[in-house]
Design goal:
Radius of gyration: 15 Å
Number of domains: 1
Number of helices: 5
Shape: elongated
Structural class: mainly alpha
Number of strands: 0
């Protein structure tokens, strides 16, 4: 885990994972509990956390794209688009971020 936190791309990968995980919990745990059983506490807490992670993902993607001189049309927009597609951050991590991270870490 420490190798993830030593690079900007690694930190982006961690945020991407947490953002995707928070969405999974919201969709498959929190929403059913809220709508079928009236338990709203998880949504009340996790909703804003997911929102913050989403915004962090957007901001860090722009920072990392600028730092590593990503071509916007080739890389940055794909990474940004992934945050708007449910569970897209997992896909983008496997297809773009992990290979880039491996090149940086060496």
């Amino acid at each position: 885990m420490t190798s993830f936190l030593t690079t900007d791309i690694g930190r982006l990968r961690v945020i991407a994972f947490l953002e995707g995980l928070s969405l999974l919990i919201l969709v498959f745990v929190s929403m059913p509990l809220k709508h079928f059983y009236g338990i709203t506490e998880i949504s009340t807490v996790l909703g804003p956390i997911h929102g913050i992670l989403f915004l962090l993902f957007i901001v860090i993607t722009i920072i990392v794209g600028s730092t590593y001189d990503w071509k916007f049309t080739k890389t940055t927009w794909k990474v940004l688009l992934a945050s708007f597609i449910p569970f897209g951050t997992f896909y983008i991590d496997a297809k773009i971020l992990q290979p880039l991270h491996e090149r940086v870490v060496g």
